[in-house]
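Deliverable D2.4 — example input (structure tokens):
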């Protein structure tokens, strides 16, 4: 949980991930909609949750047509391969996500 002083609507922002927040300039693999490898540009928040604004490195054709090749996209940790909360056997850690969303 990240305590905020600047946002009136939220007392804190939730980073829904077991991993630390990736730094600006780092690479993540966005699995949702086949976006692929992307570079972290900055962060955003929505409804109290912290997400990443990323620049796809080689977006799919549909993305280029819909958004433009140079348009960044907003993603949350669960949409990035290396940031997904998983158990040691590789299964999604449903209990982790349920605990975060019910807190």
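Example output (designed residues):
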């Amino acid at each position: 949980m990240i305590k905020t002083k600047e946002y009136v609507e939220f007392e804190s922002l939730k980073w829904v991930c077991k991993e630390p927040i990736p730094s600006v300039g780092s690479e993540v693999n966005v699995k949702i909609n086949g976006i692929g490898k992307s570079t972290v540009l900055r962060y955003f928040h929505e409804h109290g949750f912290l997400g990443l604004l990323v620049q796809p490195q080689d977006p799919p054709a549909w993305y280029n047509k819909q958004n433009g090749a140079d348009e960044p996209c907003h993603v949350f940790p669960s949409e990035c391969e290396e940031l997904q909360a998983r158990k040691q056997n590789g299964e999604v850690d449903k209990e982790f996500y349920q605990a975060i969303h019910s807190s």
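Strands lie at 2-3, 12-13, 27-30, 36-46, 49-56, 73-75.
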